[in-house]
Structure formats: structure tokens, C-alpha cells
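Amino acids appear as letters; backbone shape is given numerically. Here is one record.
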Amino acid sequence: MENSILELKPAAVWRYFYDLTQIPRPTGHMDAVTEYILAFGETQGLETGQDETGNVLVCKPAAPGFEERKTVILQSHLDMVPQKNAAVTHDFLTDPIDAYVDGEWVRARETTLGADNGIGVALTLAALADRSLKHGPLEALFTVDEEVGMTGAFGLKPHWLRGRTLLNCDSEEEGSLFAGCAGGTDLNITFQYRKGAPLIEGDVPVKVTLSGLLGGHSGVDIHLGRANANKLIFRFLKEAVRDYGARLAAVKGGSARNAIPREAAAVITLPNDNVEALWEFVADCRELWRAEYAGIETAGISFVAEITQPPVALIPEELQDDLINAVEGCQNGAISLLHDFPGTVETSSNLAVIESSKGQIDIRILARSSSESRKEALCSSLESVFSLAGARVEYGNTYGGWQPDVHSPILKTMQEVYLRLYGKEPAVKVIHAGLECGIIQEACPDMEMISFGPDLVYPHSPNEAVKIDSVGKVWDFLVAALESIR
């Protein structure tokens, strides 16, 4: 029989996390979870407010004897990435997350867990509720809509915060302190056409479906070399068109800009004489990709074909060829590494979403870099590839990186606390993901910040899991840090 997450320790942290799993909170749908936080603050008798963007701020007075300490901001975001396996019926706008204990980990059934950043929120709520903790004045900042556009952080008014020391609870590696992060830019790419091409008489409609990939966070996991479903299926399409007379009618892959796409599907037509050969080609691709990604895509790559209903029309042949060539030529994955932080990705591209509809094909790419100049160069390269193919390229959701300060007082304090608690130095790193710290730093240049969190794997995918004992360690670390910050 499975244990409930409500039986885990520290009890308060897991109780608040359980509450969050019961509240639908995908990006863009924040009302229910902000109402929960507002009600929590009022129930606790704490000063509580909400800004025009939707961010919530809960303030807790200093413990007796700690009134002269610095005001510390605990910051986390309320939204989660809604990802599920295709075969699962789950409505992220109404259904709770089904979290369960799996040995040393907490997971969710077939969906994202929301530990990113629900655990950070739960740690903060537990700190606000615990009257036994020793600390200076606390400000708990809960931001909205971080996962798409970082809307809450961008809408933050600097004067709303009194503190100038911020602890961000949104990183995913216990034992590491993160002192910097990458910036990012969305590329929104559109191919348009007036009308589709007619079906070819005698051609057979076939649907090919790629699934079983691990996916993951397009920043945190981009260095792991996981397969991108969009890149693989277009690799197949190019050869199917060239060697089997295939024509593309529809394609759909990926669902979120910041998630490595796990699934993709396409509808093609081809001459009846080539169908049997195509079946063999699909099987060959499946075995080839399994061999290429052996030891990486451990869940098992599935690639299947089936006869399907005839499409209404085909994508015009010239556009089809331009699309396939552009996607094939699009840079994807880790591109450069940071010199000062060996093994850390500096620049990357995630070919996140491709979806055709009547008269239009939409593509979304997220470009990340710790270097603003390299990010601009990458965006220019991607724009060139798709512009040459006849697409319209627009930029959106651009945010800057968080520049590391290895001499900051808060970093020194946190290092000392970790060493005292666990007898070893924490690693100091830069994360290749977009933390809100970069945006907050732009608004409050005098803010000193550090980010930390428990062990969390496969965020932004249905394989997301958080390590149970690491949550306890982070809680103890947070408690000790709050007592030590002067």
C-alpha cells in the first residue's frame, strides 16, 4: 500500500505541498492559488497584500530579539507547467495532481508533479507558520505566471519590497547554491498559406506517432542530450518525402516552450505501392533512434504508423519542403559552455512546439544564454534559417540573465551555514534556466540574492519527481540560514 505524502517529514512542508497539489494552477490560471495564499496570510494574522499583477506578499515580524536583523525576502512562484502523457485524461484547469510516494521520491501519476515550484512555496509557507523559528523580519513574495513570460516578476514594483536580501527557493539540486542564471528569448515563427493542396488520387493517408521520450526542462536538462521529438519526426519526414513520395498534411509536436518535446505526430499521404516499404522504414527509424539514444532515452522510444482518415488537404509542396529543411537546419540543444563554471551550459536552443492548422504552421523556440551577445547571435541565426524558408519570425518574452556575484555577503553566509550543518562546502553554480532573480535584479540593482532547493528531476515532464530526504535537508538549511542572516 502506498504511503501518503501527508505522512512525510517535515510534516508542515508536505502538508502545504499537498494543499497545492489539490489546487489547479497552470500558468495563466492563478486565481485559485492566489486566493489560497491570501487566505493563509489572513488566517496566520500576517500582513498580506496583492499587487496589480497578481503577486502576493506576506510579511512576518521578526522573532523576539531579532528585530534589528536584515529583512529577508523568501521568493517562489505559484504556477506549474501542465504536462501529461498523451494517453491520460487529465484537465489541469479542474483536476488535482495525484501525488504519491515512490520509494525515496514523490511523483505524480502521468502528469507533472508541480514540485517546480510548489516545494519552494511549501517551504515558505511552513516558515511563515512556524512561530518557533528565529529570524529577522520576513517578506514572502509569491509571484505569478513564471513559467510563461515571468509575468509576475516583470510586474513587480521595487518599492513594494522593503528587504534587499532575497532567498529564491526555485532551484533543483540540494547541496548547490545558485548565484546566476541564463536569460532567454522566445521566437514565434509562422508559415502561412492561402489554401491547401488537393489530395493525390490513390495515395494512402498514414499517421506516424512518436512517443516515449523523457523530455524535461529545456534549461536544466538541455545538457543531457535527450531526444527532441520535433527534430526526430522531421528527420523522418525529410526522408519519407524524398524516398517514398510522401506528402505532409498535418504535424503537431511539443506543447510548452520551456519543455523538451516528448511527443510528436504527423499525417502524410503516399502512393499505395510505397506503404509496405514505409512500414519498414518506420521500424528502421525506431530501432536506429533507440540505438542512438541508448542509455539516454531509457523509457523506450516508440514510433508507429497506422492508416488513418484522409486529410482535408495537403500542405503546399513548396512550403512543405521549406518547412522540413528549416526544421532540419534549426540549431537545437546545448550550443556553448561557460568557461568559469565548467560543465554548465552557456547557450542553448529548444525547438519546443510545431503545430499546423488551417492555412498556418506555428513554431516556438526558446533561446537561452548567460551571455546577452551570444543569445542575440543565436536568435539571429535561428531567424535567418526560418526567414530564408519564407516564415515570419517575431520575438517575445525576452528576459535578462542574473549575473553572478561570487563575493556577495549572502553567498558567504549561506556557504558557512551549509558547512556548519553538513560538514562540507556547497557547490556554487550558475543555472541554465530562467530564474526570476535576473528580472528582480534589474528592478532592484542593490538586491543580493541566492537560490537553492531540493533534488528535483525531470521538471516540466510527467516524470518529474522530488527526493524526499532532500526536502528535509533544505528545510533545516533554510531554518539555520534565517537564524544566521544578520
Observations:
- The longest helix spans residues 275-292.
